[in-house]
Every structure is written in C-alpha cells, then in structure tokens.
Design goal:
- By secondary structure, this protein is an alpha+beta fold.
- The protein has a single domain (23-272), classed as Sandwich (Jelly Rolls).
- Helix content is 23%, strand content 19%.
- It is built from eight helices and 13 strands.
- The protein has helices spanning 17-25, 38-56, 82-86, 89-99, 130-133, 186-192, 247-252, 255-259, and strands at 2-3, 29-32, 63-64, 69-73, 104-113, 140-146, 157-159, 194-195, 203-206, 212-214, 225-231, 244-246, 264-266.
- The strands form three sheets. It has a seven-stranded antiparallel beta sheet with strand order 2-9-6-11-5-4-3, with helices on one face. The protein has a four-stranded mixed beta sheet with strand order 1-8-7-10, with no helix packed on it.
- Helix 1 crosses helix 4 (89-99).
- Mean pLDDT is 90; it is low at 1-12.
Length: 287
C-alpha cells in the first residue's frame, strides 16, 4: 500500500486534454494543487459547518454513510464559492475534455467523516452504466475539494487506481448491485491502494466508478469534503439529486455557468430530503 505522490501543477494557461484524459481514463483520478487560496477554502468550510448544522437539525437532512460519517446535499446559492468552482479554468477544461461541451452540474454536496468514522467497504458510488461497460466511455465526474488540510489520522480517501473499468457481480438490490465488489477482490484493491492527502486549495476530479473507500478517522477533527457532480448529456445521475435555484440567483449567474447548471428553478428554496442513500455503507455486509 502506497501513498499517492503530490499532484503536479497543471499546465497553464492551456490545460492539456491529453493529460486530462490520460489521467482519468488511466488512474481514474487527477488533481490540481493550489487551485484556490486557503482563505477562500476557510470561507467554504464556514459555509459547510453552518449547512451541516442546519441539515442535522431536520429529518433526512444529513444521510449517514457509516458510523460518524454523513453526506449532505446543498443548494448552489447557499455556497458562497460555487461560481468560483464551476468557472475555474481547470474545472471547465476537465469537464469539456471528458464530458463534452454540453456537460451539466447535477450535484452539490459534502461528506463529513467525523472522529470515530470507520473504514468503509471498497465501493464505487453507483453501478457502472452501459456507456462505460460497453462503450468504454466515462460520462460523469466527481470533483472534490477538502475543507481542511488532510493528515493520515483524519481518515483520508483511499483509492485503487485503474479500477473504474472493473466489472463484478455483487449482491444487493437493483440499485446497489455492481457497487460493492466481492471480498475476493479486496487483495487486488489493497495492492493498488493509494491514500489521497489533499490540502486546502487543492481540487481533484475522479471517476466515481473508481473503487475507493473512506478510512477510519482516528483524529479529534472532522474532515469535510465538498463534492461537485457533473454529467455528460447521456448520464442519469441527476435522478439521484435535487439541485434547486431561485430565478433571482439564476439571473445573477454568468451565462456560461447558467448553461451548465442542471436542476430546477423554484420560487423559494425547499429543504432537500437526501435521497442518495447507500445501504451497503451502513452495515458490515459480507460482500
């Protein structure tokens, strides 16, 4: 088991599509170091802490993803740095290279592994779509931004590079079958396993099909991570999420951001009842 070396700085000002595609079709994950200032990230953390407190105070506001581990989906206009993220040149270049010019942002949320969070089973975030299984094409991406400087004690993400193409049979209902590999494949993932140790300001992009897991948080601090999910036109992940924007907010957005924002326009923002439950992360099922 190795620790992933620091991500190199991306080419500037023109990010190379060959490097982007090579990384995401190869290892299944790429990163840009220092994309945002630490002060910008600290403001993002303040937003996350407030939104997390609000979510935990209402029914189904925060979904458990294992002991002391939660997921919360949020409205774009409640996150002060949303436009900065989705208009960042690297974010745009990655989306266009992998998903094409008509990509849509379909998910805004965050994971919070708190002190006491345990190792998750190896998994992917949703079953492999036919476009990937048959067409060998990635049609969705997950971008992650850490809200804190990650240390080994905080339960960093562990990922098995190159496994976004793995096919396997696993038990479960129609929604979760194909998400959790059988334990007979664990040695394969453990041999490839790399820890991600992002620092404030870093941003990564990965295929959510690449096999990964959250590890045990043995520190006394939570490790919140922002998640931005993006789809190509033929992907269907928007069905699992509920992006809402008011017309007033939509009118203030730059045209290019509006064009790539999925979801629905509402008169008033409604509380989001989290729907993307992953039952396999809640128990010690023997896959």
């Amino acid at each position: 088991m190795t620790t992933l070396p620091p991500a190199g700085d991306a080419m500037s000002p023109q990010y190379d599509p060959a490097q982007i595609l090579g990384g995401l079709y190869g290892d299944g994950i790429i990163a840009l170091r220092g994309a945002f200032s630490t002060s910008w990230v600290d403001r993002m953390r303040e937003d996350i802490e407030q939104l997390f407190a609000e979510a935990r105070a209402r029914p189904r506001g925060a979904l458990p993803r294992g002991p002391e581990r939660y997921y919360v989906e949020v409205h774009p206009e409640r996150l002060s740095g949303f436009v900065d993220i989705v208009s960042h040149p690297w974010f745009v270049a990655v989306c266009r290279a992998v998903l094409g010019p008509d990509y849509k942002v379909v998910e805004i949320g965050f994971d919070v592994p708190g002190p006491g969070a345990q190792d998750q089973p190896w998994h992917r975030d949703f079953p492999m779509p036919e476009e990937t299984r048959i067409g060998r094409r990635l049609n969705s991406l997950a971008f992650n931004l850490t809200a804190v400087d990650t240390t080994p004690e905080m339960g960093p993400l562990q990922i098995a590079p190159g496994t976004q193409w793995d096919e396997f049979d696993s038990p479960g209902d129609g929604r979760e079958a194909g998400m959790f590999p059988p334990r007979s494949l664990y040695p394969r993932y453990e041999a490839r396993a790399q820890f991600r140790m992002p620092q404030r300001g870093d941003i990564s992009a990965r295929s959510a099909l690449t096999i990964h897991r959250g590890t045990a948080n043995r520190s006394d601090r939570a490790r919140p991570v922002l998640v931005v999910g993006v789809d190509a036109p033929d992907a269907r992940n928007a069905e699992r999420h509920d992006i809402q924007v008011t017309q007033a907010y939509l009118d203030r957005l730059p045209q290019e951001v509006r064009r790539h924002l999925g979801g629905r326009v509402v008169e008033r923002l409604e509380d989001i009842e989290q729907a993307h439950a992953i039952e396999g992360l809640l128990s010690a099922n023997d896959y």
